[in-house]
User: What shape does this take?
Amino acid sequence: MERITRRAALAAPLALAALSSARAQPAWPAASVRIIVPYSPGGASDIAARLLGERLTPLWGQSVVVENRTGANGIIGTDVVAKSAPDGLNLAFVSVNHAVNAALYTTPFDTLKDFSVLSLIYSVPLVLVAAADFPANTVAELMAMVKAKPGEITFAGTGGAVHLAAEMFAHRAGGAMTQVPYRGSTAAHPDLMARRVDVMFDTLPAVLGHVQGGKLKAIAITSAERSAVLPNLPTIAESGLPGFEAATWGAIIGPAKLPPAIAAKISADANAQLQVPALRERLVALGATPVGTTPEVAQTFVRDEVAKWQAVVTQAGIQKQ
Assistant: This one.
């Protein structure tokens, strides 16, 4: 996340200016704040939103209500926020699907124009895994197989960034892999262990136990830097594909045209909670790396993510739905 750190430093003066302006504005919020989680309860986005909501309620002096509004891979709940008044009282906690949806689907909103991205809260890397006895042990060896046998190497795809990371890898390797669709990691892992499917990109928390237990082999990690959890596992970027980076993440967004003072306050207050040890520990337990950024950095991050996944979809020949 080096690029996030650099952008945060550059954007800090803007955030301070906005906060100074905020002191001259009427107290915000004047009513309860709703955070829509456009996914099912129990996932990382839902848990993180509720952890933040619990701490922001006393800070803001108003109730922070977390509401699950599911459907269409997160599009339905997110659309509610896109169409909300720009007063900061209706927010959403979104995942990488927010950027992936812009590449895969025709949405009722413009992902880049209809939202204010307020802070990138956390990031979770993906791990490239295979069965323990799969012949490739390194990125270079897998790349050679993909290039020599276009379409013969299969990958377990569960949709979203997990699927598109495999497509991006195959394209960068100069070949092609064939997707075997699964409803989720739980369904895919047994077939991966039994070599009914060759490889998979999945989140670090989802595969860590299987890797540590020797049931799956970790080949590389998709973050820009190595993970403290698996320090001996190389990144894909250092293993032959410079610049390769993919992750799931969580961010707070609001409707477009939020007043800068309100946007800065929401961002700063949320980021402050990420410094609280108890909250950080809960996020780390989910396999997440707490981040915290200014709105300017977060907006740029999402724009880059949308561009990246749109390029992957185009390269893979996937039709937008």
About this structure: The chain has a mean pLDDT of 92. The chain has eleven helices and ten strands. The first helix runs from residue 2 to 22. Residues 2-123+247-316 form a domain with the D-Maltodextrin-Binding Protein; domain 2 fold (CATH 3.40.190.150).
